[in-house]
Amino acid sequence: MKKKSKNKKKAEKLQGSSSKWRLLVFAVVAGAISGYLLFKGSREPESQGDRAPSRPVSSRPKSLTEGAPLPEVALLSLSGEPLKLRVGEGSGPILLFIFSPTCSICTQTIPIWKELAVEAESRSADVIGISVLDPGRTEPYVAQHQLPWPVYSAANRETVIALGVQRVPMTLVVNSSGAVAMVVRGGVGQEHKDGISTFLQGEASIGSDQ
User: Fold this and answer.
1) How far is CA 155 from CA 88, 138, 139, 161, 162, in A?
2) How much is the pTM?
């Protein structure tokens, strides 16, 4: 009887050890599977709706360089009508004020833009404002700040990319040949203002000689 009791205890002990090993193996396997799923989840979105796919590098705005022609871009009037901005040779110099109604620095730049607009008009240059937001959010902003120049909205992201808008505010100066003469990103300082004024004077002198 004692021998059988010892054998039974030994069997129970072995069975208990076997259960512990099975639990340990299960924990290791489960941990490995969980780690793999977490790693995979960190690399791939669960669905297109959870996280938008990153834009390809080619769709990022590229800087416009001085001397490059101003591209033709699609715009929307504040009433939502589609139109094109076309600048060609002989169209005269143009100042483009690119902004966002949600940009505080853009709002701070408006007084300087207004001064430049007055000078531009006295030099027979056109002034155009382009908002990176839709007409519905742009129109109240234009009315609130009494922007005296024509204002339009970028029709799509392609317009923003074509204009090389990496941040706002942005001021583009275009010469009479339709080429970019100056690009100012951020607020317009006194040095920029003086440079634009000098450009407008030079363009006015060229126009008077023709």
Assistant:
1) 20, 12, 14, 11, 12
2) 0.69
